Each structure stands twice: as C-alpha cells, then as structure tokens.
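Trying the structure run again after the queue cleared.
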Amino acid sequence: MLDLMLGVCGMGFLCAMAAGAGARLQTHAGWKTVVLALVMMTAVMGAYMMWLWDRPLLIQLLPFSNAIILGNWPPIVGAFFVGVCLRTAQVARIRRLLLSATLSCLCAYSLVSPLLGHAPECGAAEVSGRMLEFQTTPQTCSAACAAGFLRLHGIPATEEEMAGLCLTRRGTHWLGVFRGLKLKTANTEWDVVVEEVRPDELTQRVNPPGILAMTFTQVSAANSLESGFVADIGHTVVCLGTSRWETLEVFDPSPDFGFESWNDRILADVDSGILLRLVSRNGTPSPLQNVDTQRPSTWNERQIASR
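Done. Tokens:
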C-alpha cells in the first residue's frame, strides 16, 4: 500500500497547490482573468475526460503502480474551484463555506476511493497444479486471470493475493489489474503493456496473449443467458490468441465456462476492451509465443484448467 499512500500524498499536495492558486487568482486578478481561468480549467477537464480518462494513454504518461491514484485529475481541478470559491466576496460567507466544504469532500472521496473497502475473501481453490484456475467469488474474475497469467510467465501468484494487489472490491478496474501486475513483475524481466482494443478487430488480427478486460453493450443483456455477459457489469478473461478460423481463444474464469472460442457474434456484445500484456525488458521471447491456439490440448499439456 506504500505506493498508494505516496500517490495520495503527492496528489494531496497538488490539490493544495491548485486551491492556493485559485484563491490567489481570485484575490489579485480581475474578474475577466478569473473567468478565463475557470473556462480553461473546465476545458482541461473536458480534454482529460475525452482523451485520458479510463484510457491506456494514461499509463504511457504515468507508468507507475499507483497510476490509479496519480491518473485521477478531477480532484486537482475541483481544488482550484474550491480556492476560487473561498475568495469570492460577492457570495455570502456561509454559502461559500458550504459549497467549498461539499466540493472538498467530493474531491477527497474521489482521491482515496481506491483505498476504501476490503478485497473479497477468496475460497480455497482446487490444488491441481493448473496454470489457469477458475474464480472462487463473483467479484474476482480479474484477480483469477491475473494470477494465472503471471503463473504462465513463471511468477508465483494466487487469486487471493491478486485480489488484494488489484484493489478488487465489488469488481476490479483495469487500472487495479495494472497495479497488481506492475507490483508482481517488479525486479523481474517482465514489464506490463496496456493497449485499447476494438471488439470488431479481435478476430481480424493476431492478438498476443494477455488479460482482456471488457465492458458490454446494452444489447448484451438480451443474450445474457447464452453468453453470461451483463451490460452493467464488466468481465475479464485471459486472451490466448486468435485462431486461423478467425475466432478469439480465451479462458473465461467463470466456473460455468472455461476455455472457449469467441466468434464475431459473441464479440458483438463487447462495448470496449483493454488488453494487458507482459513483455520482456531484455528481448526474451514470451513463454506463450509457441503455444498453438489451434490445439486446445496444447494448453492442457501445460496443465491448464479446461472446461
């Protein structure tokens, strides 16, 4: 948790600086300058939400395990507005204090929310020696995938351990999965790469193995009995690669599924996808490079769980 606490402290300092800048601007600058600054901060917030928020580009800018904290910029903008509000003489003092206190609480909650709560208690997984295991709770699909994917790269990991490192609560954000992988691959030859993938391209290109975090369209609710997808709940699987039949080979950690081949009809329910991969820092080939995705038995020979 040290990385998260350092991130919160750093962001808290930036929020304090932003609040001080807002207060100073409101005190010493003319109203036109203040309005222009507020418009610019709003524009910055809009650009962040459009191009950086919840996108892998954020990881390219902040490739740290605490990116889930450092990449949360709305509290900084909110703190600037708090500083301006506190020094606005045209508004009654009690109203300024109430508005500033409310906005400050929202900023603080947004900043520390990844630290709140506890990871779910995982069940006792079957001791089988398999690389990929099924999830033992409804919330830990990402943790189960992350643990199995790390084991495939020779890094010991368990579902319960990864649930804690990935900040699993009622679910797991992909930035939490990035944190877990980043911490587990520290001081190893592997590093974490994150990329955004379009669902309609998943069967049309060669996809390297990775952890695929997905959100789903509203149409998926109508197909939930067949696919298991739910529109308001994301899901994570281990992507094993693309077969020559233009299907995506995956391991779904849900106990009712397991190894599957997904075609375009199934992937049509996917709204967005984030693929997290491990790449060698020194050019060592991936241990999954020569795995034949056309032969599921190849994975079984590697003692991976099957349906």
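The chain has two domains: 2-115, 141-301. Worth checking whether this holds up in the mutant runs.
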